[in-house]
Design goal:
Rossmann fold, seven-stranded parallel β-sheet, 34% helix
């Protein structure tokens, strides 16, 4: 778990060559001891509320689930539309899934997203100015906020670090959050792409609330109390099978 950060119960069973029942029993004991945190279908190392894990490690965490989410998002994005993609490994997966779309105009504060979509000659990529974070090539700061304010796009697809049981969307860097909040106001529809490990994951800064988004794309059924929260907020939840 220290090596991978987040693993499904099935992966642990296969890797350790033991039954699912054994894995679940041992995971429960480790969780009770505070050494692991459980989420729907898997476990992760306990999260800090003030610092995210490294970008390279996040790329490998639930990569298959993120790819399914990305495909589901891409299927709902029509050709010849405008959108914003923000910082995150899930939005980078979405960028890869859009490589065959036509007529897109994409605004981003993520240099990784820009580099990916430059491979699509039918896509115009507009990059926000600002301070580049070396650890993940995200662009943050007031210059990025001012740049995003110029636009009004069809949809924003945003990644987040956590969704808490009170319905708040959370992240770790207040500078990144300021840009993401501006992105949400610049879009006619706001879509969140978040794998199942993000439910009940704590982070220090409030980005927004479920009531501010239109759609949620995830890779497994959300645990309680999220189904009721999503219904109350009138958020359409798509589970990428």
């Amino acid at each position: 778990m220290r090596t991978h950060g987040s693993v499904s119960v099935e992966q642990l069973s296969e890797k350790l060559d033991v039954t699912l029942q054994t894995v679940r029993r041992d995971v429960q004991r480790l969780a009770e001891a505070g050494l692991l945190t459980r989420f729907h279908g898997g476990v992760r190392v306990p999260s800090s509320t003030i610092e995210n894990i490294a970008h390279r490690q996040r790329e490998s965490l639930n990569a298959e689930g993120k790819a399914r989410i990305a495909s589901a998002v891409a299927r709902q994005i029509p050709n010849d539309c405008s959108l914003i993609l923000n910082i995150g490994t899930t939005t980078e997966a979405v960028a890869k899934a859009l490589l065959h779309h036509k007529g897109l105009r994409v605004i981003t504060n993520n240099l990784n997203v820009a580099a990916i979509l430059c491979g699509n000659t039918d896509c115009e990529v507009i990059v926000a100015g600002g301070v580049v974070r070396a650890r993940d090539r995200g662009i943050v700061g007031e210059a990025a906020v001012d740049f995003i304010r110029q636009f009004r796009v069809d949809m924003a697809v945003i990644g987040i670090s956590g969704v808490e049981a009170d319905g708040t969307l959370r992240d770790f860097d207040y500078r990144e959050v300021k840009v993401a909040q501006t992105i949400m106001t610049a879009a006619r529809e706001v879509w969140v792409a978040a794998d199942s490990s993000k439910f009940n994951r704590p982070a220090m800064v409030e980005l927004g609330r479920l009531t501010q988004i239109d759609r949620l794309f995830t890779d497994a059924p959300p645990p309680e109390p999220f189904p009721a929260l999503l219904a109350e907020a009138n958020v359409l939840c798509t589970i990428a099978q």
